[in-house]
Amino acid sequence: MYYLADTANTEEIKKLLHYFPLQGITTNPTILAAEGKKLSVILPELVKLAGDKMLHIQMISEKAERMVDEAGRYREQCGDKCDFYAKVPITEEGYRAIPMLKRAGIKVTATAIFTHQQALVAARAGANFVAPYVNRLDNISSHGIEVVSHIVKSFNDFKLPTKVLAASFKTVDQVHRVTLTGCYSATISFELLERLRSHPMTNTSVESFLKDGKDLYDIPF
Ligand code: E4P
């Protein structure tokens, strides 16, 4: 499974890019609001940090035609080097926008997906990615992982090229279980990525290795 960072915080992204094998960055209006900056200010910063990695930016327009204009504007601002995806919430207008965006040569991530069938319809419409919301499903006594696993199975069964970008995680266990579904990628907050890659026993083990080995290895510490 590939990891993406679900954040627009440039300090967090810089820190992650230092050591974490990130495949890209995703944002949504709520994530942007937490930064207190306009998209026009933050987009160039995200583009610079993303380099040739994926950058998924969510559309705010409600009408399909406007989503296409909006996505075109961002893609132009992102430039050729950027692997830009227009995140389209899967409303009636969102479904309509997918083939229009594809015809305009813009890659699409269908977002705010809560059911297996929404994902299949988005895939049939031509979405490159679908983003099912695991934690938000779990929060309404549904089963986020089960929804993802059904989507993964159907995409495999029907040999659909659309990939799954699982989203909305709050716990390490949710990420662990989504990985076992075989889903292609997941977008995860900075705090949770940090929790995934670390363990206190790793730190205590390294400390004791250093203590035991520092006088034995012929290299400067
Ligand atoms: C990413 O594409 C989603 O917008 C995001 O993961 C939603 O996460 P939340 O449910 O924690 O807001």
From TrEMBL:
GO biological process: carbohydrate metabolic process
One Gene Ontology term, aspect cellular component: cytoplasm
InterPro entries tied to this protein: Aldolase_TIM, TAL/FSA, Transaldolase_AS, TSA/FSA_arc/bac
PROSITE patterns per UniProt: TRANSALDOLASE_1
Alphabetical keyword list: Schiff base
Keyword set includes Chaperone: no
The protein, known as: Fructose-6-phosphate aldolase 2
Originating species: Marinilabilia salmonicolor
Phylogenetic classification of the source organism: Bacteria, Pseudomonadati, Bacteroidota, Bacteroidia, Marinilabiliales
